[in-house]
Amino acid sequence: MRLSLKKQEALAGYGFIALWVVGFAVFLLLPLIRNGLMSLTDAALAQEGEPQFIGLANYVEAFTLDVDFVPYLLHTLRNLVVDVPVILAFSLAVALLAMQPVPGNILFRAIFFLPVVIGSAAVVGRLFDTAGNQVVLFRGEGVQQFLHIYLGEHLPAFLAFLNRSIFVLWRSGVQILIFIAGLKGIDPALYEAARVDGASPWSSFWKITLPMLSPVVLVNVVYTIIDSFTDYFNEVMYYIRMVTFEVSLRLGYPSALGNIYFVLIFVLVVVAFFTLGRFTFYRGER
Amino acid sequence: MKNNLKRAVVLLLLVDVAFVFLMPVFVLLSTSLMHVMDLYDPTVQWIPRWLAWENYRIAFTALDYPTSFRNTILVAGVSAALQTVSCAIVGYGFARLRFPGRDWLFLLVLFGLIVPPQALIIQRFILYSKLGWLNTYRPFVVPAALAMGLRGGLFVFIFRQFFKGVPWELEDAGKIDGAGPVRVFFSIILPLAKPAIVVVYLFSFVWHWNDSLEPTIYLNDTSKFFLSQRLGVIEASMELMQLRGMYGTGTVMAAALLVILPLLVLYLVAQRYFVESIERTGLIG
User: Fold this and answer.
1) Which of A128, A235, B162, B273 is the most buried (most CB within 10 A)?
2) In the predicted model, is pLDDT for residue B74 greater than 60?
């Protein structure tokens, strides 16, 4: 018996993705489902007897009894609202600069990508940890004393702001690269046509660059949200890790925390996708 | 004249931004060569009074460098290779072969990307302990071979985008000559995918190298530790070596630099590929 061409192709298709299907089921779907079930029980490490079903008690506890979880969650959300626009604006500006025909722009691109390569959690943690009482941007008392004259009591707050900004900018490497790739994909003929029609660089940025770049903006927004939510230094991530492996020996409760966090990320990504999706322009679409 | 001025301004801004990116690296370098006495001496800012190379010697021993370097390069290298191959195969399936449910399954690939590792780590821990995989490298290698692992979904996505941009005619030519999908993939498509392969391999390698979350949880035998894990416990290691008081931040910074040194060398060599290949993978559009 011979299969039709269509069926043959479908069979080959399933063959190609079979690896992923197995991996996804075993290492993602199964853990996720079991996590959901466990969050409804009082399971714990070194538990005597079977875990008992306790309904939504763990979820109720997270929002009512736990004094740390909700503040961490809100703080993470607040940081996100600030970080995403800053990272996006900064990385777009840097990408636009790096596209300018100036000597050494290739070298600059290499430098901007450096944080991605060496930005290991362990190393960055060490670096910004020691810099906690000292700003990474400048060494020594001289600059600080100079600033003290102008800022007075606001100096520590200003320095903290500066340190945090650097930390944020250090997370823009991938975004810069994605923007550069996007900018390279825009047909130069569009700019040429606009220039001939008398458009200023300013208006061609708003009327050509930004619309043509909008799919890339969407990719970057989603990437930034996921990146900052799953970052090793994220407070909620840290808290869940602590609850599980250090503070308590409970398993049900941190499972519930993980689920709440996951649902939050999921909702945010979907919202970002649909609100930004409305402003996104795809070539070849009318 | 006006053009020169513009170029000067752009260059100045670029230098400023580069400064922000390079500064922490300089801090790392300068601190790593400082003796404890220099660290607490307010007159020493950038240039240590004498170069404290012993920081590197102590860090090298405390990291158990030869062993942990071998562990790291082996597991990161193998996992990255397996992940690249498996994600390429899966990416091709999603890009070029039509089968029922394809788009929904691809949505699941993207879904996998946004699940935070913390939500899964307890269950994975239980799974691996049942399988007897704790304290082995299987939790890193096996998921990588199944197109999962560290950000596997992203790599499937990159390959899918790349393969979608390859002209159909090349495949049709192969099909007319009687090659099946497997032949077409391995002898026509894969050789074309060099830029995507380079990007995915380098990213995967770097991310495996730098990962310290999952290793910390699945491995507890110090002789199996990776470099980033050793860096996390460096104070304890130095304590064990009874070097308390003799070490300072300088030694820790030297250790941090030793951990990323191989990556820096790799980056200097492959920098061109990192930056240019991603632009050519057709990731965009």
Assistant:
1) B162
2) yes
